[in-house]
Amino acid sequence: KAGVTQTPRYLIKTRGQQVTLSCSPISGHRSVSWYQQTPGQGLQFLFEYFSETQRNKGNFPGRFSGRQFSNSRSEMNVSTLELGDSALYLCASQTSGRGNEQFFGPGTRLTVL
Amino acid sequence: GENVEQHPSTLSVQEGDSAVIKCTYSDSASNYFPWYKQELGKGSQLIIDIRSNVGEKKDQRIAVTLNKTAKHFSLHITETQPEDSAVYFCAASRGGGNKLTFGTGTQLKVEL
Fold this sequence. Notes:
heterodimer, A: 7-stranded mixed beta sheet, 0% helix, globular, B: 6-stranded mixed beta sheet, 5-stranded antiparallel beta sheet, 11 strands
C-alpha cells in the first residue's frame, strides 16, 4: 500500500496570504488528522476528520480550517497567514477505529515571510 | 486538557549502549501511548505503542513500560545502533478520540 502523501512538500508564502495543503490518506483509511510542528511548541493537534466530518478539534484560531472529501482526501486551509504559522504541517491517517495507529505523511514545510 | 512532558530533550549514547526516554502525562483517562521516530525526509514512524491494560511491551530491541499509577511511560532501546539516531516523540490519547498529545521530543544521537 502507498503511504500517506502530502502536497506540496514545501511552500513559501507572505503574510496575509492564504494557503491550502493537501493530504491523501492510505487507501482504506477514513480518518485524517492534522498536526502543526514547530521548534517552540512541538507537535500540536489541529483537527481530525472522519467521513467528511470534523470529529475532533484542537486549540487553534478559526484561521485554520479543514475539510475532507468523499474519497477521504483532506485539505487544510490557513487564511491571513502570520509569521508564526511557519511550521511543518503533518497529516496522519488511520482506520475508522478510535485509538488505533496513526500513519504520518512526510509533511508540508510552510514558510511565511 | 492532556499535557505530556518528555525527558531528556537530547541524549547521546555510545553504540551498543541502552537509551531510555521518559514521558509523563496528566490525564488519567489517557489509555493509548505511542512512540514515534522522526527522521529528516522520512516523516514520523510509529515504532511501538502500549495501551493502558498492559504494563510492558517489547519488540526486538525496543520496549515500552507504562506505570498508570504514576502516569508515566518510558521507551527503552537496547544495543543501540547509529541508525537509531533520530528524534523520538511520545504521545498520549484517550480512547474516545484520535487526538494525540505529543511530548516535546528527544534528539537521540548514537555515537560510534
